[in-house]
Amino acid sequence: MDLKQLQYFVVCAQTGSFSDAAKVLYSTQPSVSKVVKALEDALGMQLFERLPRGIRLTVQGQKVYQYASRITNEIDALENMASHGMTKWIRVSLNPSSWFANQFVDFYNETYEKNYHFQLTTAGVRSVMDRVRDYVDDIGFVYILSQQKENFLHEISRNKLQFVPMYETDVVFYPGKETELYDSGKSKVELKDLDGVRFIQNYQDEFFDIGSVHEESFQWKDIDISVLTNSDYIMEKMLKNSRVSNVSGSYLSENKTGTTPGIPLDMGDSNVLFGYIIHKGEKVDESVQELIDFLMVQLNES
């Protein structure tokens, strides 16, 4: 077993295809397949199921991927050190948030003289959790509905991670400018008011549908999500010029304030929780803690 085999294996797992992995690796499909087969032989286990279209990790392959991705990421970090000296990199994944984007700009300017370097990735809750678990990122920022907190924390604990809540806010409904609810004068909307409404959301995340506490609880599968995007620009344009609406936390939605008025969504005692994911029992790097402290100050002032 060698590093090349691990690198090829990780790329194959991420692309779900030997041919797509070959393009990323600037190799050929037969060569990639041969390297992965050599790794399977060395480990004495099948890592992928070969499907009619693409490949899929086996249960054993999923376990190997966690270790292999950690090794290859650490190699990447070492190579960055070699090429850039002891540059401090802060790797962050997060749910799309215009509020976070604005805070990050301020944090970058405030710490400019420290010469921090950043890698930022937007993704859904599940992907953020996986990236932190696999040491792809140092920290992940997510928002979840409080009604799903218990089930979410079970997933977090199972992956040897820790979730630290930072802020709790109301759930807000943002009607598109071309919808009937825009300028309706309503002080709040109820779940029944969402019937027939089409939505644009940043991510349709599975955690919103895991083990609802009550059958009548809000679930994404009960509403018509017609557009999924990780672009605030597309979100703003669609809300301003179409008949789609959006549901999110009020503090996460600064890009919508000039586009559409937010209306509180009555969901009983359920709110949106914002917080971060880190490895349980592991010390947070000082630069990452500096980012956390900065965000806490901003949240307390909001």
UniProtKB/TrEMBL annotation:
Q: Which keywords, in A-to-Z order, does the entry hold?
A: DNA-binding, Transcription, Transcription regulation
HTH lysR-type domain: which residues? 1-58
Instruction: Report the sequence similarity comment from the record.
Output: Belongs to the LysR transcriptional regulatory family.
Q: Which GO terms describe its molecular function?
A: DNA binding; DNA-binding transcription factor activity
Please identify the protein, giving its name as recorded: LysR family transcriptional regulator
Q: Which InterPro entries match?
A: HTH-type_LysR_regulators, LysR_HTH_N, WH-like_DNA-bd_sf, WH_DNA-bd_sf
Q: Does the keyword ATP-binding apply?
A: no
PROSITE patterns attached to this UniProt entry: HTH_LYSR
Q: Which domain of life is it from?
A: Bacteria
What do the Gene Ontology cellular component annotations say? cytosol
Source organism per entry reads Blautia obeum
